[in-house]
Amino acid sequence: MTAKQPTQGNSTSTVLGRRLGGELIKLRTVAGLTQTHAAKALTASTTKVAKMEGGWVPMRDPDIRALCELYGVRDPGTVGGLLELARLDRERRKAKGWWDDYSIHGVMQEYVTLESAATAIRAWQPAFVPGLLQTPEYVAALRQGLATPAAKSPESDEAFVAARLARQKRLPQDPPLTFRTVIYEAVLRNFPGGTATARGQLDHLLEMANLSNVSLRVFPFGGGTHPGLNGSFNLMSFAEPGAMDIVYVEAPFAQRWVEGGEGASAYDELFEMITDHSLDESASVSLLRRLRREL
């Protein structure tokens, strides 16, 4: 699924809505039932069921419970996970958050709304310091290096930095976001903005690594190759990790969502493989300190 938000008239198919719809399609298929069966159980039209399964409309708890009953789903954990996903989707559709004060549109607006709702994020980053851990100086230097000339202006640059820093408030919120990240060693040796930026960013990474809800590890040059070197990805969890995961995948000139299922499981396995071949947290911090001393 591409990262562009699908629209249909005034309706938008949300990532959380599609994730929920995909789970319901899977349960309906396993039960050997059709959209017509689901429509009868809800006293609704098949068109409405199709919209639900496509993530076009928010779903009510009674409808989810009725469909679970129809599909023979009795496990409280499964039903509860679907209800939680529906609740988050309803909240995201009507949410007015900090992002409304900034010029964040399209894919990134949906991303930051999901980030604000997630309980845990696992991030692999082979090119840059993860956004949640960037300093203002690092963000500004990135902006200068990556933004097109037409997009650059003192006002837009300042707004870009402010929006990135606003995202970071999610880390210390109550309950705090659990954030596990693995950073490729090359990121720590190729800082935009020169030595001054590198010093401040390394100091900040060392500070963030001390937080109880942050796990920072470094994938060393000697760690070998793996598919993740093609681009970064973030696994976002909204319940227990793995249960309702959504993956945001980013590569040069392209982004896409992977909405659960086998695709998300593959990224989960890839992240754990990358982690297993990385330095442990203590050794990662030691490397950060050594690089900081060398500047």
Summarize this structure briefly.
It contains eleven helices and eight strands. The chain is an alpha/beta fold and 295 residues long. α1 runs antiparallel to α5, α2 crosses α3 and α4 (61-70) packs antiparallel against α5 (76-94).
What is the secondary structure topology, with strand pairs?
Layout: E1 7-8, E2 11-12, H1 15-30, H2 35-42, H3 46-53, H4 61-70, H5 76-94, H6 106-117, E3 120-125, H7 136-146, H8 154-167, E4 178-184, H9 194-209, E5 214-219, E6 232-237, E7 246-251, E8 254-258, H10 261-276, H11 281-294
Parallel strand pairs: 3-4, 4-5
Antiparallel strand pairs: 1-2, 3-6, 6-7, 7-8
Descriptive overview:
- By secondary structure, the chain is α/β, with parallel strands linked by helices.
- The chain has two domains: 7-94, 434 Repressor (Amino-terminal Domain); 98-294, Endonuclease, Chain A (2-Layer Sandwich).
- Helix content is 49%, strand content 14%.
- The protein has eleven helices and eight strands.
- The strands form two sheets. A six-stranded mixed sheet has the order 5-4-3-6-7-8, with helices on both faces.
- Strand 1 (7-8) and strand 2 form a beta hairpin.
- Helix 1 runs antiparallel to helix 5 (76-94), helix 7 crosses helix 8 (154-167) and helix 9 (194-209) packs antiparallel against helix 11 (281-294).
- It is elongated.
- The N and C termini lie far apart (43 Å).
